[in-house]
Amino acid sequence: MSFFNVKALAVATATSAAALFSTAAQAVEIEYWQYFFDARVQAMETLIENFQNANPDITVKMTHFPYADYRTKVAAAIPAGEGPDVVQLFYGWLNDYVAADLIQPLPADVFPASKIDEEFFPMVQAMKDGDAYWALPTAVRSLALFYNERLLEEAGVEPPTTMDEMIAAAKAMTKRDGAGNLTQVGMTAGMTAQDHHWWREGLIRQFGGEPYVDDYQTVNYNSDAGLEALNFYSSLFSGDDAVTAIGFMDEPQAAFKAGRAGMHIDGSFRIGSLNNTRGLKWGVTELPATADGTRSNYSSYWVNAVTTKAEGEKYDAAVKFMEYVTSDEAMQVWLDVVGELPAKPSVGLTEANSNDPVFGPFIKGLAYANTTKFANESGQRQLMVEMVERMTLQGMSAEESLAIAAEAEQKILDEYYNSASN
Amino acid sequence: MYRNLTIRQKQIVWAWAFLAIPILFYSVIRFYPTGNAILISFQDWNLLGDRTWTGFDNYQKLFADPVFWKVFKNTFVYLLIGTPLSLIISFVIAYHLDQVRFMHGFLRMLYFLPFMTSAVAMAWVWRWFYQPVPVGLFNNALASIGIPQFPFLQSTTWALPSVLAPAVWAGLGFQVIIFMAGLRAIPRSYYEAARIDGVSWWTVLWEITLPLLKPTIVFIVVFSSIGFLRIFDHVFNMTTNNPGGPLNSTKPLVLMIYETAFSAFDMGYAAAQTVVLFLVLLVVSLVQLRILRDT
Hints:
The structure holds 2 protein chains of 2 kinds. By secondary structure, chain A is of the alpha+beta class.
């Protein structure tokens, strides 16, 4: 063997050894971000553990932030290239991320649109663009009517199924002191909580209207149905026979937790914190139907998406991870730990899940739920808050207040869609 | 080269060497972001995408926005009620506290305590005080003696004063301490001379105490004006569910900036508001310094 050959062999051995070591030691690490909510973090830890056991060459590092900072941190980090490979985003933020080229579409061979259309609840289609999905949820959430079992029993009423029954039950549970001040409300009210969703996607549709048209780009609730919905809603807290008051005990969920409210409309994400409330015996039922049985609900969800930062083997690992977190198994874990509903009917609508006394009403609600496409959720919610305040604090008529809200919301939508199309 | 310098020149070099550190720090931490904010105010940016130039669009939108004018007015109401009120109350307290010997230290501590308390904690406690029956302390007290409830935070008229009250209270401790230091700095001999001349209590106050307190008053007025123009934490924490509400009646400029930037993600518009706030602070401070210093 000539000197040259020996050297070549040595080099070859060294490189192949290095290559060997690198595949063994160099497990791909991908980064995952979500906001901090105890149960969500716990569920994701379980999912990551399962995923890593199945894919020993991939490690997933989870980072979480307080909810208050989450949106800003994500928005600052991803454009700077410092962010995660897989990120959890609220469905309403997705447009901005797509427009800014910060997330990449899911590969059509692993996530064929036709299969997703078929398997997931239809509201997920808001994430679709042509033949590709930009992002997918693990879980979805909807609204339902929580009730305080003790107060219902004390008043001798049953959990309501229609709006009339709800009003009657609320009246039976409302208590006042000698001066007429409310000391216990039949049900909670406040557009600052979930009521703006109930009003938009629930009540307006139940009264025969459609809150928005043109794919949520045009406000359409300044109509008879909208007015009826607003009158119904404001009748809860106006007049001498009001069954509630805005701002009673500061926040609706606080009043319900304290056992001072008979009923409370809230999302499935509230289940966890109610379970931890000592001395509260509660139940939950579907949102009330109209007399003719019309029902409508609101659903929302958080999605996971692959950012443009993920390239090469990290991209492959990220896609694998996405595949796992949108699997049936992951959805059941998420339901059991977080209490959020599976995004696929095949998992959600199992006999056990839809008959579950707690999850059942929410899961049934998904079947008739709509998802609002917000341009600026807090801004649009604020308009609903102000619509009610103009009536309660300034004595404005419902017609006038509704018209002002519709006009202001249209302005937000116009600004958003005009600047997005630029 | 350094060797050839004179001692005087060497001193200058060293002075600059030390001064360079704060200047550098300020350039990076203050001046660069300030310049950047002014730049962004002429752009459209949602924090994610590209920045695009829009000229004066943000400012035009601002001056045509009724909410901005409402908020602008609120900011000045905070200033025009908050500053004189806290000035008078803190002077009265300091003036009398200065003459008290019994439990002087303890009383002073009591007045200073709110200043050391976290504004967030304090705002939440007051928020609960203000609630209607059955949780609110004040309304429960009113209800128990048969007086109708008072809609502290749920009225477009009374919400602002209700938010302002704890903010004034929180700042008192600091102002009282500064006033007391100012009072102690006035030479006793002036008061002795006045007493020998048999001058009235009012004349002593008006001709000796207040004129000699002028530097203290200037400081407190400027300091608390800037504080009230920038008020945020009390308002935000007392109205978190409906920030600046009801119907924007308590919303100060800083809160509007925060919402525009971090819930609407309209950075250009928020930057334009910030530039306006900056100019307002600048003008108010300069005017106050001039008025209070020259006369």
